[in-house]
TrEMBL record:
Protein's name in the database: Uncharacterized protein
Protein species of origin: Polynucleobacter campilacus
Organism ancestry: Bacteria, Pseudomonadati, Pseudomonadota, Betaproteobacteria, Burkholderiales
Domain of life, per lineage: Bacteria
InterPro entries: TAT_signal
């Protein structure tokens, strides 16, 4: 995979998204950039966030996940539990905001080098493209291409079940090489509302698409999901 920035953005922009779905997409109220620029809350053991996850295509609630910082050392470990208290795979960051093991996908992904979870600069005109390799947990010998374009959309005031927050809205456009050789032109889109005051995002939406090798022109939609913060401490 060797896409230019222009080609990558154009191909991602053509990917279809869900329309006419029962669950509304998240909306915030645009506001002027805060002055001074907020600083990101540093990590501490015991910090915790809970999120409700929904399917944007049918509005169905898929569960509640609670994330808690359990370790700060060479790596930052965020333990995760489901609504029944069952343990889920942990998120691992090499440094605050740089993810090496990402739990937000249908399978656990390991990145090397790690990827930023939020913009490196909390500025309305910031954007950057990142290229890395990833492997699916349990298949570390297979390193696949991952290209991600992160761009800030602006500051917004947004209301979620946990309350009202001032958040930086940004978008990730991702083009990745699938571990399934039959899948090509794999694209994911994410819109994220990141609240520096809690050191985490308060809302997030993701959808994706791919094509089948030999059937170019037929685009298949993947699941579309929405997460909202319900509580934090």
């Amino acid at each position: 995979m060797n896409l230019s920035r222009r080609t990558f953005i154009a191909s991602a922009a053509l990917a279809p998204v869900a329309c006419g779905v029962p669950l509304s997409y998240e909306r915030g109220i645009p506001i002027a950039a805060p002055k001074p620029t907020p600083t990101v809350r540093p990590p501490q053991i015991g910090q915790e966030w809970s999120y409700i996850k929904k399917d944007v295509f049918n509005g169905k609630t898929l569960g509640l996940v609670t994330e808690r910082i359990s370790k700060i050392g060479p790596n930052i470990v965020i333990d995760r539990r489901d609504q029944d208290g069952g343990m889920l795979p942990s998120e691992i960051q090499t440094s605050w905001g740089m993810v090496a093991t990402d739990t937000q996908w249908s399978r656990l992904l390991n990145f090397n080098p790690s990827l930023p979870l939020w913009p490196l600069e909390l500025s309305t005109d910031w954007s950057k493209q990142f290229t890395t390799k990833y492997s699916v947990a349990g298949y570390s010998d297979s390193r696949l291409n991952w290209q991600e374009y992160m761009s800030v959309q602006g500051w917004e005031k947004i209301t979620v079940p946990a309350g009202e927050f001032v958040a930086l809205r940004f978008q990730n456009l991702i083009n990745y090489e699938s571990s399934d050789a039959n899948k090509v032109d794999c694209i994911r889109k994410e819109t994220v509302w990141f609240a520096p005051q809690i050191g985490r995002w308060v809302a997030r939406e993701a959808s994706g698409s791919y094509q089948i090798q030999g059937q170019i022109g037929v685009t298949i939609l993947e699941g579309g999901y929405q997460w909202q913060l319900t509580s934090c401490k």
